[in-house]
Amino acid sequence: MNSGEEEVGERGPARASSRDSLFLLTVLTAPDGQDLGNARVRNLSANGLMADCENPFGSGDRVSMKLRGVGNVEGTIAWAKGDRIGVNFDAPIDPKLARRPVANTGGTSGTLPEYLRPPVQSSRLRR
């Protein structure tokens, strides 16, 4: 392999930046806003991501997506293999923002939403 060639393995080309493994759902859209289908982000770095997609893509396709905690991100498909793609972002992001807990918007500060609370047993029911 020449020093200028990029190593391509089972998971696509080798990358220079470190990646965080995670599971994050997003919707891919075209530059004109057309829905291109759902994607499961498997790993994320400052410069790109790898995702499983429900629709096929080709290298060079332009996509945008909204990443939880990060916001709207645009990029180019760097590689596609089966249902997996690698995306190079147009501008670096902070991947740690996608790992932050979702903010509590339930009204009362410091309490969990009802669906996250453990069931409470009434003292009258215990014997």
Shape: globular
- Name the beta content range: 35-45%
Derived structural class? mainly beta
From N to C, what is the helix and strand string?
EEEEEEEE
> Number of DSSP helices?
0
Unreliable stretches: 1-9
Neighbour order of strands in the largest sheet: 3-4-5-8-7-6
Sheet having the most strands: 6 strands, antiparallel
C-alpha termini separation: 73 Å
Mean pLDDT: 78
Determine Rg (CA atoms, Å).
Answer: 20 Å
Number of strands: 8
Proportion of helical residues: under 10%
Ordered list of secondary-structure elements with their pairings:
Blueprint: E1 8-9, E2 12-13, E3 20-29, E4 35-44, E5 48-53, E6 62-67, E7 71-81, E8 84-89
Antiparallel strand pairs: 1-2, 3-4, 4-5, 5-8, 6-7, 7-8
Quick description:
By secondary structure, the protein is mainly β. It has no helices and 8 strands.
